[in-house]
Amino acid sequence: MAKRSHEDWTALIEQQPTNGLSITDFCRQNKLSTSSFYTRKAAIDDINKVEPFVKVTVAASIDIISQTYASEYTISLQHQTGTWTFPSSLPASYLLEIIKGLQSC
Predict the structure, then answer these.
(1) What average pLDDT does the segment 84-104 reach?
(2) Which of 16, 39, 67, 97 is most open to solvent, judged by the fewest CB atoms within 10 Å of its CB?
(3) Cα angle at 35 between 32 and 39, to 5 degrees?
(4) CB of 83 within 8 A of CB of 77?
(5) CB atoms within 10 A of CB 81
(6) pLDDT at residue 98 is higher than 90
(7) How far apart are CA 24 and CA 41, in angstroms?
(8) Cα 39 to Cα 89: distance, rounded to the nearest angstrom
(9) Per-residue pLDDT tens digits for 5-48
(10) DSSP code, position 66
């Protein structure tokens, strides 16, 4: 038998609850192992899980920033508590910690 694609597995997993068969009977009817069915279902569920990302927009497009002018640029974050502005020279690890802190607000 040919190897099933991701789209094939997605269609099969979406089809299972609508046909009224138990997962075991559905797998038997479609010549699937139940372990493969559960493994693929878990993987598809992980892919479809929505993460709480925030939409980011680029205010200006800059291809090359000279070191001498880098201090003039800032990073601005819009948050429910206000607008937070940081120098572009702020280390990424600090910015990450600030974002994590703002997520809890």
Answers:
(1) 82
(2) 67
(3) 105
(4) yes
(5) 9
(6) no
(7) 14
(8) 44
(9) 888 899 999 999 998 899 999 999 999 999 999 999 998 888 77
(10) -
- In tens, the pLDDT along 48-90 reads 776 666 677 766 555 554 444 555 678 888 878 888 888 888 8
Query: What whole-number distance in Å separates Cα of residue 65 and Cα of residue 62?
Result: 7
Q: Could you tell me the two tokens for 49?
A: 């899980």
Write the secondary structure of 9-61 as one string of H (helix), E (strand) and C (coil).
Answer: HHHHHHHHHHCCCCHHHHHHHCCCCHHHHHHHHHHHHHHHCCCCCCCCCCCCC
Place of tokens 């139940």: 34
How high is the pLDDT of residue 75?
Answer: 83
Tokens representing residue 83 in the block:
């607008």
Residue position matching structure tokens 């068969």: 21
User: 60 is written with which tokens?
Assistant: 């200006």
The helix/strand/coil state of 74 is strand
